[in-house]
Amino acid sequence: MTLDGLPNEQVIFVTGGYDHAIKIWQAHTGVCQRTAQHTDSQVNALDITPDKHLVAAAGYQHIRMYDLGSSNPNPVINYDGVSKNVTGLGFQEDGKWMYTGGEDCSAKIWDLRSRDLQCQRIFQVSAPVNCVCLHPNQAELIVGDQSGVIHLWDLRSDHNEQLIPEAEASIQDIAIDPEGTHMAAVNNKGSCYIWALTGGVGEEPTRLNPRKKLDTHKRYALRCRFSPDSSLLVTTSADQTARVWETTDFTETQVLKHEAKRWVWDAAFSADSQYIFTASSDGVARLWNVSTGAVEREYQGHQKAITALAFRDQVRPSS
């Protein structure tokens, strides 16, 4: 199998979790290429820089960055100046800055052009932040917190708006599809809320129009992700499943379930939107075929739960 017909070296697949290890895999073969040490804490979230040179790991009171191109098992950039758990992170599309969210009730913007990770801007909320999501327009940050509030932070104007889709339900994850037409949010009651998005171009802020509420899972929902072609949404849960939904009408098209019966913590689509990677509490990452629902490959080597994964296989034009 080739993912999207790309040469193997273009594909980067990284996992991390409770065994204090970050593993870098050959996505095509299931072979672990190397293991990096993340000794201080569990890995809460991972993301790969747009240039594919570094992987960033969010942990307890720190952010670590590892060089993907070298055999150095230790982080090349360390940032320890954060309190509590960093729960989410990601990158602006040109790699100019990183955004994070955490249990210190804040979202932050970090300048990546200096090697010592300068925090440029802070957005303070009144509850621990569970997730952060950057709009494809690169100008609005969506922040979800434990009290159930979704905050829309406009980075251009510093204006922010709030909405509460469901009272007393913690927002666990938020995603916007690459085309910027839909936003999804999942909560600890297993519900997924869908909005149709308008605006968001130029200086115009994004407007959210409620579209649907899905009863996606019987238990805690953990993650939601849109496919690169915007046609599918995957949700993962403590109910031991990942579920795939078609974005045309948000009907369920596939249930990804394994007999290992463990929480599914994280998920990512391949660039051609035909495969899904999952990370679960049994310490195994899996590659699923979306159309058949079958497991195509397993990535075994972690000693404890895998709570985060990161995947990049699009070839970026060199600037």
Number of strands: 28
Runs in which pLDDT lies below 50 for 5 or more consecutive residues are 315-319
In terms of structural class, how would the helical and strand content be classed?
A: mainly beta
Q: What is the percentage of strand-forming residues?
A: over 45%
Percent helix, as a range, is under 10%
What sort of overall outline do the alpha carbons produce when their principal axes are compared?
A: globular
Q: Characterize the biggest β-sheet.
A: 4 strands, antiparallel
Calculate the terminal CA-CA distance, rounded to whole Å.
30 Å
Taking all Cα atoms into account, the compactness measure Rg is 18 Å
Determine the number of helices (DSSP H or I, runs of at least 4 residues): 0
- The average pLDDT score comes to 92
Element-level helix/strand string:
EEEEEEEEEEEEEEEEEEEEEEEEEEEE
Order of strands, main sheet, comes to 3-2-1-28
